Amino acid sequence: MSEIRMDVDFEHPAERIWRALTEEKLLSQWLELPRFTPVGEAEVTGVEGQRRLAMLWGNDELSTRLVWELTPTPDGATLTLRQSCVYGEWEDEERDEVRAAYGGVLHERLPAILDWLAFQDVDLNAPMPGSPAEPVTEVIPFVAPDKRRRRGRRLVALSTAALLLLGIVVVAALTQTGDEEPAAATQTEDAALPPSAPPPGTTAPGAVAGLGTGAPSPSLSKSPSATPTPSRTPTTAPPKEGTTAPATPVLAAAYETTEQGLLRAGFEGEVTVQNSGQGAAQQWAVIVTLRRGARVTDVSGAQFSQEGSRVTFTGGSLAAAASLTFQFEVSSALGDSGPTSCEVDGKACS
Predict the structure, then answer these.
(1) Is the pTM of this model over 0.70?
(2) Where is the CBM2 domain positioned along the sequence (predicted)?
């Protein structure tokens, strides 16, 4: 029978194994068979989610159908390989040679790639498994011993000091009263107002406040009004005649995937930026979000910077009612049809 079937269990999740199967740079590092062309020349014939991948692979004299299937398990996933001839036939020695080659490919080279991918996902700042947890520092408020007793002593001391101060004030007041001379009272009587004039602030008997009693009533004068203080806040000058508000740019963008194929891991994209406003844009920026693991490899017509899956394309001025187009290439997994999002000036691309 001209078919090879192998089942291999891995202690890695199915998503990680799928990356090793569908990213061309990873696939070419571990999948290599004797007498077969480089795996990058294989033709992908079918992809079902992240579960099944089918391809045609062989050489000028032999073509085989190679099917990979992933089945999740409690410890990771099982990778099932089935390979059969489409045209041409294996000799017994050739089939045994290919089967032996799969032993090193699936049990040595592929596990090394998976371990390398797992290391990239490790958070080096996280505590190691089995390591003791960091001690939790509990802040205990300090309570002085005999706090109530000290507080009581403090209150007694304050009360005693208050009583002493009150006594000193009373003694000083009595001493000052006893030392006053009678002449002071006589001098006060001599300086008193005549009986005809009531003391200030009082009203003569039978008189009503504000009416004359023989003595001129004080005149009520209006207080001078306060001079208004000129404001220091400058007033806004009215716009000059004939002037208008400055024109502003209005940016929009449209994205299109220009090239993609199952054989090729990745795609090519094109973005057109248009300024429909009345003013020129001094600069513009288009933000594109790629799928995990995808990288921009080449750009034409713009500058770019990539942080993780977020790619920012920038350019210079764009005049009013003008447009421009730039292209970029992305290396990613097989079946990737384009970015997950695209926006310019906070608006999604069309």
Answers:
(1) no
(2) 243-350
